[in-house]
Amino acid sequence: GSLVAAVLAHSGRLDKEHLGARVGRLSRRGEVCTMINKKYSEFLPSMQSAEELVAQVEGLANNIDLLKAGIENEVQRDLNVAVAEFTELKQQLERDTLVLSVLRKLQEFDTAIKECSSALLEKQYVTAAQQLDKARSSLRSLESRRGFELKILKALGTELTVQTQNIIYHLGEEWQKLVVWKLPPSKGSSSLEAVVLSELHLHTVPAQDEDTAVPPVAAVLQALAVLGELHSKLKDFGQLLLQYILKPLISHPSLQPVPEEQPDVFILRFRSQEFALDESSPMEVFDKIKLVFEVLHKHLLNVPVEQPGEGRVTLAELLGQLIWEELSDCLIHNCLVNSIPTNSSKLEQYKEVIESTEEFERALKKMQFLKEDTTALLKYACNVDSHFANKKCQDVIMAARSLMTSEIHNTVKITPDSSVALPELPDPGSGDHLKMLPASSLLHNGTVNLGRESRLSPFTLCLPTCRISSSVQQLVELAYHTLLEATASTDLCCVQLFDCVRNIFQLFYEVVPTYHRENLQKLPQLAAIHHNNCMYLAHHLLTLGHQFRYRGTGVLSNGAATFVDMVPGFRRLGMECFLAQMRVQKGEILERLSSARNFSNMDDEENYCAANKAIKQVLHQLRRLGMVWQDVLPVNVYCKAMGALLNTALAEIVTRIAALEDISAEDADRLYSLCRVMVEEGPQVFTPLLEEDKNKKYQEEVPVYVHKWMTFKELMIILQANLQEIVDQWADGKGPLAEEFSAAEVKSLIRALFQNTERRAAALAKIK
């Protein structure tokens, strides 16, 4: 019952709420209706006015359509007709304007040609040239009009050419009257005799007794400038000026300009002095050239002209542009180059040349012959250090090459105590290690004390006695003098001279073996001298840079200036040449011994004679070599070379005899006699010195230089010994025979010398 009562109560509340909401909605609807009515009453008049406006607009649109249709049908047609008429009138106007312009240009051309001819008759050359230039401009304008061609233009061009050549001809005649060259019959020659006969006449002042005066030079030059012919006239004039005046004055010291001024003409002549130096100083050359330009400037080159595209310039400026480059090159190569000092001590005196060059350029600039920024001569003169170094290097290289291509066989003797004509070098500076040694270490005789008893000889590091080419000695002297010159020069010059000295030795390395190749291959003495030359150069190269290390404060003092790197190359060059000659001599020795018929069957007289002849030929060859190398090679090199060649002969003989399979008693005796000849006469080929009594020492030391000497003597013992003696010489492998021959070689000789018996078998058994 409680649940039912709750439901009913809730339903009642819902009905009340629904009813209230509905009443609220109805009241709001009434308010909205009232607002709508109010808005409608306000909107209605506006809508009516808008409808009226729409009606008016529609009426206007209809009127516009009617107007547009009228314009398209009537006005546009009239407008097209007007445009067509305007276009036709415009084209007619353009044609008329073009015809009028052409007629005006033709009139201008005709007027200019007539005025040109009239002015030319009156010798008013500038006016004639200007009128001709106007005619050319008019014709050019006519020819540039495309689509408008006249047959008359070709005739006008011909007329213009005729008039141009006519005025150029007249101007050329006037120029020849103004500037007259009187040249020798042999034109093109710039010899002294031809130049002396040359004259230049300048008729720049009209003659007083002539009614028709020569036109002023300015008028002729200006007319040529207008026509564009002035450049070619000046170019021809400049070339003649160079060929017959300027260059001869530079090349011939005896030639002097002689100016002569007369009332109506200026004449430039030349005369030759009888007594003149071989070369002119730059100051003298500059004075002569300046004199020529001064008189030319006074009578010709100071004329101003209006040059098209350049404005107002003087004739001197134009001429300078044409000939200065060639003239300056001639002055440099034929004058300034010769004045460059060959000795650094004369560089101070070269300041006078620099000042003279500067004054010369200043004078030419004042005459407007040169531009203000032109300093070619002065730059060259001021760069004297570089030019001095270049010239010095060139002279040094040429002198060195001359020495290298001279004869090698002209020799001088070099001894450890010989004094070479080298420049006197200063004492080492404070940095030299010798000055740090105690006083007791430097002995009065020049030797250095290394301890209590050991002393080095003063000749310890000296080159041994030998002969070298006199040209090589002079080459070394040249290198020393050049380096001495470098120490007194600027750093740049010093570096160039140092490089030049290196180039000298590099040139020797490349040139001498090539230039003298044939003689070095054929002549043993020249090969020996070349060997000595290379060793002599290497000896000096070891200390050449160090000797100048303490000379001055230049780049040579920093220790980088050295020639030590070239020493191995020169030593190798000398050794390779001499070893190649040694190989040739060894080949000849072996070739001669090959005719000995292997030293077999010596009981045959023919074989014995052949072997004996081969031995004698070998000894003769060795004696000849000993003579040509005598007093040339150092003693130790001589002995080693002769020992090697004699050793080659002995080794070949030993090899041939040891290879024999059968040696009879007579063969052994004859082989022994041949070997005895080698032993007796072989040492006699050792004659390194001219004094015979001094050669005995080296002849006794033959075993030192001939390695197969003892082997050869043991072979002689075997050829004459019996079996027991051979066994005794062997001494169980400890005797002298065992030191020179192997067991197999001794057994082979025993089998060849002795018959097969029990005694031989017993002897062979002991050789082991």
TrEMBL record:
GO terms for biological process: cell division; endoplasmic reticulum to Golgi vesicle-mediated transport; mitotic spindle assembly checkpoint signaling; protein transport. Keywords: Acetylation, Cell cycle, Cell division, Centromere, Chromosome, Coiled coil, Cytoplasm, Cytoskeleton, Endoplasmic reticulum, ER-Golgi transport, Kinetochore, Membrane, Mitosis, Phosphoprotein, Protein transport, Transport. It is a peripheral membrane protein. Residues 461-591 form the Centromere/kinetochore protein zw10 C-terminal domain. It is found in: Chromosome, Centromere, Kinetochore; Cytoplasm, Cytoskeleton, Spindle; Endoplasmic reticulum membrane. It comes from the Eukaryota. Transmembrane segments: none annotated. Its main location: nucleus. Residues 613-767 form the ZW10 C-terminal helical domain. InterPro entries: Zw10/DSL1_C_sf, ZW10_C, ZW10_C_2, Zw10_middle, Zw10_N. Residues 171-404 form the Centromere/kinetochore protein zw10 middle domain. GO terms for cellular component: endoplasmic reticulum membrane; nucleus; RZZ complex; spindle. Residues 29-113 form the Centromere/kinetochore protein zw10 N-terminal domain. Interacts with NBAS and KNTC1/ROD; the interactions are mutually exclusive and indicative for its association in two different vesicle tethering complexes. Component of the RZZ complex composed of KNTC1/ROD, ZW10 and ZWILCH. Component of the NRZ complex composed of NBAS, ZW10 and RINT1/TIP20L; NRZ associates with SNAREs STX18, USE1L, BNIP1/SEC20L and SEC22B (the assembly has been described as syntaxin 18 complex). Interacts directly with RINT1/TIP20L bound to BNIP1/SEC20L. Interacts with C19orf25 and ZWINT. Interacts with ZFYVE1. This is Centromere/kinetochore protein zw10 homolog.
